[in-house]
Amino acid sequence: MKIATWNVNSLKVRLEQVLEFLAAEAPDVLCLQETKTEDVNFPLAVLTAAGYQPVYSGQKTYNGVALLCRAKPEDVSVGIPDFDDPQKRVIAGTVSGVRVICVYIPNGESVESDKYKYKLDWLAWLNGWLKKELNKYPRLALLGDYNIAPEERDVHDPKFWEGKVLFSEPEKAAFRDMIALGLVDSFRLFDQPEKAYSWWDYRMNGFKRNLGLRIDHILLSAELAKNCKSCSISRDMRAKERPSDHAPVIAEIQIEEI
DNA sequence: ATGGCTTCATAGTGAAGA
């Protein structure tokens, strides 16, 4: 089973690249963030024609998430239960016995911002929910744009980023809280290139200079992690004309039949 | 190493992203 996540920064603008990615990688599930598309405008027909069954939760201008699935997703849910959030940031479904949760964790803007408080609050709600979900679904994958670089090696200039949003201590602690639930960062199960990132600022020639952060992740429950065969970042998608500022992350898992 | 992109909503600028 191949699962992937990609913050596309507008599905409308990136649709051709999404189709290209689906054709090239043929993932069983692709999690999308920042679709910035209302559900009535979701490009259902073209993605269905490409062999995928999408489920989605979007809104105008901001946020928006989707799961593009080869097999029909079961028990689809939207948002975090009991957490009243008008921002569309979570969609989950069960595909081939694997619970796939797609998240677009808030950016936070800056540590002084009210949006940062919202981010930390949001992460606390996510953690509480994940705890229950892991009891329910031993085969669970949490994919998405976390807007957190968990370690120094995930940041091109840790000194500069120290204490700043995306790399502040409370955010890293929230990430570790997810690891403490038993989730595993699939990317670090394998040898990886030095200075491997998943996001580069559009400004300042960020990509060409590899001034990036690794903030898009695929976390796996223990049962999936032990069967994970690879995890990599598709830098080539960031090198294209008119790219998203994020690159996709892909993991392969060998699913044993029960 | 941040003002210096990109997208969206909108009709000339402003918000937001990270």
List keywords for this structure.
258 residues, alpha+beta, 6-stranded mixed sheet, 7 helices, DNA-binding
Describe the structure.
This protein is of the alpha+beta class and 258 residues long. The protein has seven helices and 14 strands. It has helices at residues 11-25, 44-49, 114-136, 158-161, 169-180, 222-225, 235-238; strands at 2-7, 29-33, 53-57, 65-69, 74-78, 90-95, 98-104, 140-145, 184-185, 199-200, 212-213, 216-220, 228-233, 249-253. The strands form three sheets. A six-stranded mixed sheet has the order 3-4-2-1-14-13. α3 (114-136) packs parallel to α5 (169-180). It is globular, with a radius of gyration of 17 Å. The two termini are 15 Å apart. The mean pLDDT is 97. The structure holds one DNA strand of 18 nucleotides.
